[in-house]
Design brief:
single chain, alpha/beta, DNA polymerase, domain 1, TIM Barrel, 10-stranded mixed sheet, about 35% helix, about 20% strand, elongated
Length: about 350
């Protein structure tokens, strides 16, 4: 009989699993604490459980883990992790230091089906969804190296295309007996899967980031095929209707591509489109990569776009390029190592 991976369970599911084996439900709390707070890798370590229960769990279940296949650290402290999964597929995570508040960017899929023209991950195509355990194990693995204060679902894949495993992993992160993160410190990014945005908001409370990247349907249709199914009007309505706790804002992610979407007219349209949505804007200068014809914007274009929005009282952050010396853009380390191996 194939053993069950305990890390695929949220607290409710673990309680049900134990109850189905005739065990007390409260043991789930103890097991969660051992795994997520004490870092237990086997049931034998759980000394406050009876020997009989530990022996039974060893027969029916496992506590999975991930160990990095490769780690690169940049001059700015950014750390890129490559994890090889049990089936030989690989995903990446990036740890970004910021004044002692480390942010961890994690993946939800092997590859991606969204085919955004400017995105390197899309060139790998979608292989499969990650399991809940594979998502949560990225956090557990990196917590062995460094404190993790913030988690952003902005790595490989479209998180909302793997909604059930995404939500379950978030529940484990938020659980007081689990990873004990605040919902203020978890952000889910999406390219704009409108129905799933609404469902995410119904099921968990987290921050939402929307990868917009264009201010007309014509351009967005070209660089982000998802727009053909959920055009800007529907996407922006979903943003307006997304349930946000008081004083929180949706993050509008905007990748500035040289000569494509970085003009002052683009900035004007962006302001018009989002003026009635509580938002902050992340401007992300495009990171050039092999095989893509797009170019990075000029410094002058970035500064002008930023200034236009700031002068009109929009909260704007121009994201510095991090880890440029270690292939920290999503998919770069995986692609480089695959090329070497091939």
């Amino acid at each position: 009989m194939e053993k069950i991976d305990i890390k695929n369970f949220n607290m409710r599911e673990l309680e049900a699993f134990l109850s189905g084996q005739g065990k007390e439900r409260f043991r789930a709390t103890q097991i969660f604490k051992w795994i997520y707070q004490l870092g237990a890798l086997s049931f034998a370590e759980m000394t406050n459980l009876s020997k009989d229960l530990r022996a039974e769990l060893e027969k029916t279940a496992v506590i999975s883990t991930l160990l990095p296949t490769a780690v690169e650290e940049g001059r700015d402290g950014t750390r890129k992790y490559l994890f090889t999964l049990d089936d030989g597929e690989a995903v990446e995570s990036v740890l970004i230091p910021d004044e002692g508040r480390n942010t961890l960017c994690i993946s939800t899929q092997v590859g991606c089906a969204m085919a955004c023209e400017f995105c390197l991950t899309g060139t790998f195509r979608l292989k499969r969804n990650l399991t809940t355990a594979e998502i949560i194990n990225q956090v557990c693995a990196i917590k062995r190296d460094a404190e993790v204060r913030n988690v952003v679902f902005m790595g490989m894949g479209e998180p909302l295309q793997n909604l059930d495993n995404l939500v379950r992993s978030i529940e484990i992160m938020l659980d007081g007996n689990g990873l004990q993160l605040s919902n203020r410190r978890i952000t889910v990014s999406t390219c704009g899967l409108v129905p799933q945005m609404a469902e995410l908001g119904r099921r968990v409370t987290v921050n939402l980031a929307v990868s917009l990247n264009a201010t007309t349907d014509e351009l967005r249709d070209r660089i982000m095929p998802v727009n053909r199914k959920y055009p800007l009007r529907e996407l922006l309505l979903a943003c307006r209707e997304f349930p946000l706790p008081s004083r929180r804002k949706i993050t509008i992610e905007y990748v500035l591509i040289g000569g494509v979407n970085d003009s002052l007219e683009d900035a004007r349209r962006l302001l018009r489109l989002t003026s009635d949505i509580p938002n902050k804007v992340n401007l992300i200068p495009f990171n050039e990569h092999e095989g893509c014809g797009f170019k990075a914007p000029t410094r002058a274009a970035v500064d002008a776009f930023h200034k236009y929005l700031i002068d009109r009282h929009v909260t704007v952050i121009t994201r510095d390029s991090r880890g440029g010396d270690i292939s920290a853009a999503c998919g770069q380390l995986k692609g480089r190592l695959e090329k070497i191996a091939g």
